[in-house]
Write a structure and sequence with these properties.
The chain is α+β, with helices and mostly antiparallel strands. Helices cover about 30% and strands about 20% of the residues. The model is unreliable at about 90-185 and about 230-255 (pLDDT under 50).
């Protein structure tokens, strides 16, 4: 008999950790090869890991609910020698090999996430990553590559004479440099450093729990949460601290984080789920873009009459209803063809114009959060094809059966908030995209027609949120007009198939 070690597999390009949801086998149970063994959760996707060998589950090393990095030993098996030999070469992705201590961390492209009021599949974490359509956002926005640990030389500070010209010419600058902490020896990925900087956290003050003392995203988030939970300093103490800094010539204090929330009797702390934490981080990243919004009212009367006419045959043929969402997605595709600038991404090097039209479709999962799977090649689909794709991603999202590939490559997002009853909203543009559309509730209203008659019409507000670095108000309005004109002329000339 031999012992086989099952380690946390690599679950996606930028995923660095996973949470054990449920063990499907217990210690002492016989396990066949490819039997489902354990359920692992990430920020959006639940996946079941099959057993790579046949044998007996000997020991479970990570309990349910624990979050561990890729490569962590999860369980051990008693197996036949041949099974271990056969499984070892085939487990490149499932069973990462042990890695030596790391000296450097390499950032990987960060995927995107988003949802109804925000939406966002997949922000790039660097300028190079932004050149491609965004990927799904994970709990961690970077991966690390293993290299042998190299001894670091102790940092040395060159001494200068007080009378040297360079020292006298930049005394204030040298003082700031001396007072600024040296972060060069802090082991953390660029994404983690960015998160710390955005929240005003001195990353050198955080004790890293990762391999070799690496500071992880969770370390930073826990540090922030603990700082916010700590009682605020008394006003007099705060004034004294400010006064001492002014007297000593130091910078005046700047509020880097929101004030701690008040604590009331009966309050209960609800821990953040991986999905909620990912949504929060993604929204902070999305809000970096300067947002603007525009609204246009659409007359949906003709469209709804046409839908009523064809929906019976469609449902008999497909087995599900023809939703207005399919028409809205089709209108978005037509508008993206007419106004291609909206189908783009901003980078520091320029605006990336996407040739593919891949629609992110926001799906609400109740209080748990929301996800935005991607409908690829939406411009090649008919109304029926779009409806099938919408039904597919919604059903799989609610059944927690989406995969990482479902979140990759979105270039524009459709946020159908109408079924929730909203009549106007302000959607947040997903990172890596230039705009997002929200289609609101379709309601009957009394209006004055062009010939001054009073009529009952079915109306809907269409809201566009756009990144003002890429899209201006006139472009956004032209995009809305294109969608409006298409939706208001839907009829028999628009085939379902």
């Amino acid at each position: 008999m031999s012992v086989f070690e099952l380690k946390m597999p690599k679950l996606g390009e930028s995923v660095t950790e996973g949470t054990i949801g449920k063990w499907l086998k217990q210690p002492g149970e016989k396990v066949n090869k490819y039997d489902l063994l354990v359920e692992v959760q990430t920020d959006k996707v639940n996946t079941e890991i099959p057993s790579p060998v046949a044998g007996t589950l000997k020991e479970v090393r990570v309990e349910e609910g624990q979050t561990v990095p890729i490569g962590t030993l999860l369980a051990t098996f008693d197996t036949a020698d041949g099974d271990v030999a056969a499984a070892s070469p085939a487990q490149g992705a499932l069973r990462p090999q042990p890695t030596p201590p790391q000296a450097n961390d390499a950032a990987a492209p960060a995927p995107s996430s988003a949802g109804p009021s925000m939406s966002q599949p997949r922000p790039p974490s660097s300028a190079s990553a932004a050149s491609a359509p965004s990927r799904p956002q994970s709990t961690s926005a970077s991966t690390s590559e293993s290299v042998p640990q190299q001894p670091r030389p102790a940092p040395s500070t060159p001494s200068r004479s007080p009378s040297s010209p360079s020292a006298s010419a930049s005394s204030s600058a040298s003082t700031e440099t001396a007072e600024r902490p040296d972060l060069s020896d802090v082991r953390a990925t660029p994404a983690v450093r960015k998160l710390a900087a955005e929240n005003g956290v001195d990353i050198s003050q955080i004790d890293g729990t990762g391999l070799g003392g690496r500071v992880s995203k969770k370390d930073v988030e826990d540090y922030i949460a603990n700082a916010q939970a700590a009682p605020a300093a008394p006003p007099q103490a705060a004034r004294s601290a400010a006064a001492s800094q002014v007297v000593s010539g130091g910078p005046a204090p700047i509020a880097a984080r929101p004030a701690p929330s008040m604590s009331l009797a009966g309050d209960e702390l609800v821990p953040l789920t991986q999905m909620r934490r990912a949504i929060a981080n993604n929204m902070v990243q999305a809000w970096v873009a300067p947002h603007a919004h525009a609204v246009m009212e659409i007359d949906m009367t003709a469209l709804m009459k046409y839908r009523d006419k064809v929906r019976g045959d469609f449902e008999a043929r497909e087995g599900f209803d023809l939703s207005p969402a399919a028409f809205i997605c089709k209108a978005a595709v037509e508008a993206l063809r007419t106004v291609p600038l909206v189908n783009s991404s901003f980078t520091d090097q320029g605006v990336i114009a996407h040739k593919e039209i891949n629609l992110g479709y926001a799906v609400a999962l109740g209080d748990e959060g929301l996800v935005v799977p991607v409908i690829r090649d939406a411009d090649g689909k008919s109304l029926a094809g779009l409806m099938r794709s919408i039904r597919d991603v919604v059903d799989r999202a609610k059944a927690r059966r989406l995969t990482f590939d479902d979140f990759y490559g979105g270039t524009f997002t459709v946020n159908n908030t109408g079924p929730l009853g909203t009549i106007i909203s302000s959607p947040i543009v997903p990172p890596g995209q230039a705009a997002i559309i929200s289609s609101e509730a379709i309601v009957k209203r009394l209006i004055v027609t062009d010939d001054d008659a009073i009529a009952i019409r079915q109306r809907m507000n269409l809201v566009i949120g756009f990144d003002h670095r890429v899209v201006d108000g006139a472009t956004a309005a032209r995009f809305l007009q294109t969608m409006r004109d298409w939706l208001q002329t839907v009829g028999p000339t628009v085939p379902v198939y």
